[in-house]
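Recall the central idea of this unit: under ordinary conditions, the amino acid sequence of a chain determines the structure it adopts. In this exercise we apply that idea directly, starting from the sequence alone.
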Amino acid sequence: MSVIAPRFKFSEFVKSIIENAFWIVVIMTLVGLPMAMIVLFYVDLPVIDGALVTPFLALTWLSHPELALPLLKSFLTSDAFRILAFPGFGFAALVAAGTIFVERKMLAKLQLRVGPFYCGKIEGILQLAGDGLKLISKEIIIPAKADKPLFIVAPLLFVGAAAAFVALIPVAPGWVVADVDVGLLAVFAVIGFFPIITVLSAWSANSKFPFIGGIRALYQMVSFEIPLILSCLGVVLLTGTLNLTEIAQSQQVIPWIVLMPIGAIVFFICMLAELERIPFDLPEAESEIVAGWLTEFSGMMYGLVQLGSYVKLYAFSALFVVLFLGGWSGPVFWPPLEQELLESGQTLGPIKLQLPGLPLFSQEFFSAVIWFVLKTAAVIFFVLLPRGVFPRIRIDMLLRIGWYKLIAMAFVNIFVALGLVYAGVVGPGGIF
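Accordingly, the structure predicted from this sequence is:
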């Protein structure tokens, strides 16, 4: 029996558009405007022409694009925007989502497969959204004999630790959520929570495969955290600071990877182990212990752990860029204009770089962000690449690499840094 498809009627099409527009206007009027007013009462509004903007005046200005620009500037420079959007968790989650898609397609190309293809017209671009909706809609199954409070909280703690890691990474001059003087120590303090969370989640599942994976993860992370910390001491010796922003700014002339390639290599290998990436994926070895410490997670609990893992991947890659690749340093992409031209709002070609009396962002800021993103993307690519090239190593080889070879190489890197400092190559009066 054949099925006749319904005929297209232009009148029905116009009717549906009008109905959707009507309900959008109604919802914006009854819900959107009151919510905007409530938010404006709790947001720090800017001072313009010597007077503090009131929420009622701000709501009026929102309907006028030119008058709304000062409010936009105030919002973009607020702590809430930095934490939630850029350079905080929102930006890291966006990079993590892109990394998942790129990893799938890259591994498929390396293994002569197609990879994600059907969700979305362009190379399966909507596959990630489909997987996210699937995880949200799936049932969360908690083992009957599990320690339920710890089992439920563990994925949230994992994502929270990854977000705290991201908060310490500067992406441009002055653009960091938490710019602390001992930023590098704070990074290692946050990293130290990941083994604890992993073991707690594995133990709380009350299952043999997660417990074996958790013990493996504990051994692996403890073995590689020591050379990871030692590999950064050379950078600290050359810069004389633990502040990540100052470390990035100290590489305006030359990145530290040129003077300390051994430290960069040790840091990169330890980073792979901390991220549990191949060839150091023993805690999640699919062919041996199902999925390791992730075995009993299901639904969005598994999705949160995966999100935290890729946010952690971005944070480690960004930290490598800050320590060894000069951070955001790089040439400006277009010639800088004179300050008078910027303040007058004149344009360079069709692009208006500044607004009259309202410099939102400078050319140096955009250039710094672009360089930082490009460098971080390059590091992420080299982190993903071993998964399609190398096999998994044995646990005895893993421990031997961490406790013997990498620690010895880290000490060699420290001696090289001391030699550069005392030889006058780096430091006050030095070449760099």
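Strands lie at 47-48, 51-52.
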